[in-house]
Amino acid sequence: MARGDDAPPTRSWGNFLHIRSTRTPATRRRASLLALSALGAAAALVAVPLSAAAAEPPAGGAPYEGGEYSSTAPSGPDGSFLGTNDGDWYWVRVDGADRYEVAANLYAPFDSGEVLYIASGEKYADALSAGPAAFHQNGGLLLTAKDSLPEATRKEILRLNPPKLVVVGGTASVSDAVYQQLAALKPDITRIGGADRYEVSRNVIDYAFPEGVDDVFVATGNNFPDALAAGPAAGHLSGAVLLVNGWGEGLDEPTRDLLADKNTQVARIAGGVNSVNGKVETDLAAAVPSVTRYTGADRFAVAANINTSIWTGKTENVFIASGLVFPDALSSGPVAASFDSPLFLSRPTCYPAPTADAIWHSTLNPETVVYVGGPNTLSQLLISDPYYCE
Predict the structure, then answer these.
(1) Interior CA angle at 189 toward 200 and 262, to 5°?
(2) What share of the chain is helix, strand, coil (3-state, %, to 5)?
(3) Residue burial 57-74, b: 16+ Cβ < 10 Å; e: rest
(4) Residue 297 Rama label (left phi>0; alpha psi -120 to 50; beta)
(5) DSSP β-ladder status, 266-270 and 317-322
(6) How far is 296 from 220, CA to CA, in rounded Å?
(7) How far apart are CA 283 and CA 255, in angstroms?
(8) Cα separation, 386 vs 390, whole angstroms
(9) Angle CA(98)–CA(343)–CA(225) in degrees, nearest 5?
(10) For residue range 26-63, what is the model confidence (pLDDT) as tens digits?
(11) Which residues, including other chains, have CB under 8 Å from residue 69's CB and lie 6 or more apart?
């Protein structure tokens, strides 16, 4: 399924020089997106399979407009500035006509995959666990409407041409009619369902991690923000995202059984006690050897604290998506994980302090910032006139 050496990529992504991507059972896949220096001509990003080594990019233009160098980053609270490359960094926006096209466009760097997970783009729960599972299986995640398969999703399935599709969620999330449309594209298809979002989450982990999983991020299924940044972080640790009822009376028996069956050693709680309460944390501590909680004053701080804790040194890239709505961040998760990159959350027109501090005033010091979503969710002001939210 890999692109032939002489074949041009179907699509390209930004004005990047090249991408490096490797993955073995013992090492995580890590990619570097480096901007093309001022040569007067744009080079397209090479299209590579999700698990293939990089090649030199072919010549040609890039369909995404606006990617370029910048030295304008928010000043820190003390007036200091920590840019990248001595103040120069590269940005690109990945957008689309709707959430389904954004998800499809995120896969432009890749020309194949071993599996594609398909989850609802109208509800958030199923995709939260599906993203890390897809990454673990050298695959990707696309979104669908409940009752109709978006054309952007259909086209991207055909382009990537994976051997297998995995539909996540029951018929209330992805209808039988859509399932049949997907099956017509790829007969090797399976559905992972469950009685509720928590059983779906457990079943996804059981399916994608048959060998077990040492590291699990635990997030509430009652809301989406805390689990968004946890997805790429779980990928960095070769781990999973497990949804629980964070407002419940503790950890239910099926969840305890799953953690035992998968021989989980570390549970990482995403969010404070208002997201996952102390009763659940106490039960987790009795179920696994180590429990860590990542908290913060709000969803932006939680994401930043997860990222700066999991990535302790320089990263080549960071992804930014809206923290107020979920679709673009859901789609970004497994792609960010493929580049071993953290995913940060932002407001539409200004940077929450934890987000800006972590990106530009920490050791992460990225070369490239990838903004996911159109100007209605991430304003161009974030790029051209960035400032801290008051």
Answers:
(1) 40
(2) 30, 20, 50
(3) bbeeebebeebeebeebb
(4) alpha
(5) unpaired
(6) 15
(7) 10
(8) 12
(9) 75
(10) 233 333 333 322 222 232 333 334 432 222 222 223 32
(11) 35, 38, 88, 89, 90
Token look-up 């957008």 returns 95
* Structure tokens that stand for 271 in this block: 């969010």
Joined together, the tokens standing for residue 190 give: 């399976």
**Which residue type is seen at 114?**
E
- Angle ∠(8,11,13) on CA atoms, nearest 5: 115
Any idea which residue has 């709000």 for tokens?
A: 298
CA of residue 34 relative to chain centroid, distance: 19
Q: Rounded to an integer, what distance in angstroms lies between the CA atom of residue 35 and that of residue 14?
A: 9
Instruction: Choose among 220, 221, 224, 194: nearest CA to 207.
Output: 194
The helix/strand/coil state of 230 is helix
∠ at Cα 139 (137, 141), nearest 5°?
125
| 3-class DSSP state of 119 | strand
CA 5 to chain centre: 28
pLDDT tens track for 239-260: 999 999 999 999 999 999 999 9
Strands (E), 3-42: 16-18, 34-35
Query: Locate tokens 């990047």: which residue?
Result: 16
CA distance 9 to 33: 17
The stretch 268-274 carries a mean pLDDT of 97
